[in-house]
Amino acid sequence: MKGVVLSAGKADPSICQVYGNIPTALIPIYGKPIIFYILQNCLQLGLKEVYITVGFEGDKVKRFVDKFFKSAALKIHFVPVDEQKKPGNSLFAALKEIEKGKVFISLADTICSVTKDDLADGNIIMASKNFDRAELWCTVTKDQDGTLMHIRDKERHLSKNELALTGIYLLENCEIISELEAENMPENFEISHLLATYNKKAPIQVKETDQWLDFGHIEKYQRSKKRLLEARSFNHLSFNDVLGTLTKKSTYTHKFVAEIEWLLNLPKSLKVLSPRVLDYSLDRENSYVTMEYYSYQTMTEIWLFSNFNKRVLKSIVDKLLDILYLFETEKRTVRKEDYQKVYLQKTTDRVALIDTTKVPALRHLLEGNDQGLVCINDVYYKSWERLQEDILQFADEQLFNEAHNCLIHGDYCFSNLLYDINSGVVRLIDPRGIWGSSAAGDIKYDLAKLRHSISGDYDFIVNDLFSLDINEKEINYTIENNENQQRIKKYFDKKLAKRFDLAHIKLIEGLLFLSMIPLHDNAPRRQVVLLSKAIEKLNTFADE
Fold first, then answer.
1. Model confidence over 363-397: pLDDT tens digits?
2. DSSP H/E element including 475
3. What is the pTM of this model?
4. Facing residues of 141 across strands?
């Protein structure tokens, strides 16, 4: 069985209002483009080859797939098509390339959980009764045996037995389509035309599913993201779509209770920045919080995938800094022991947890060669073992500053910052709760968290959007920033340096990268890049 992913078009206008003009294949879902989820499903189904149709910004789609989804287990072909034509033309072109055999077909804006058992035999189209606004969908009816009877495209008035196609199809004999002569086809046609043609020669079974997440239209996109988050989060999350609320529980009760208390105790002047708490329990055996749910996008999604110009991105950076400066006005008492706990003790404790037995490159980065040096991207740096004494001593002696002690968020990174592109509204989620011994801390810590998202490429790394080559004692990794991102990095540092010692922020940022490594022990390649970033940044600080 071979796969086809139809990804030639531009995302629906409602999606482009949020992210700018982006290709359907790169619609962001929690830090990864949707095509990654689809290709992962192809691997789970045992596919060895996939044909991806490309049109709008096809080169960008190719780069993403080639760079970040290379797999010896999955051979990928790209089929250039006319993005102005309907998906039926794209599918016809892909099937012409494949010529014959069994094919699994997926639209690029849908995720439908299917298994090998679902696709065990016969010609199958997956359909669902969970849809509204019939004019947006291709719908079908089936007979008592489940065989496709009628197929309609985006008709407003439907019978009660209509099901919406989810964009997942399995055809046993694609030659039925591929052998059709192009000159006998309409100039511009929908997939429904091909399915109707196929059904006349080989009956298609309609399978109902409730495991369908549609990301093609903004209203379904938001609901589908919630359903996916419910299924994947290590916290327990449940959404009330009628009230627009989120109830959260967590197995990390100590941290979770601190997070709830942070929300409850925000000063009145800052409360608007976080979700309104409607109900909660601080009982460590049954802690929970129910709060408003915001459907705004995370800054991770905007930073990684949006197509906004530098003017828009600059305005976002300005807003994010202005919010931190509001927190800075909420002065608090913070002990130097708290600085030591966060910057020294946490760092050494986390480094001790790094398991180097499975990933020799981690040991090399920590210890270096005979001279204590490591080679990263063709540049030699001091290893952590050579740096740590001076770095930790400086952190102990120089970072404490009473003027910087205030209420902080504690995890002010892109994934915890929600931004509404239409209104410019920012909302903060998932605070740390405790920094040292209380909710108060060093504002430089939050600034470093923000910098590691903007300048440190943290969101690229944790979403595996990098290439990595480990060659003997050399480590080479690549993260591609676009021109606007490069400009924003410089702009951010220029703004930051007006109020803070940028070297201090870079030092804290390096320690952040270092302390995160054991938290990603299920992703060794990611750990290597995180540690490489830490070494680079701490060396930069040492050189200054």
1. 999 999 999 999 999 999 999 999 999 999 999 99
2. strand 474-478
3. 0.88
4. 150
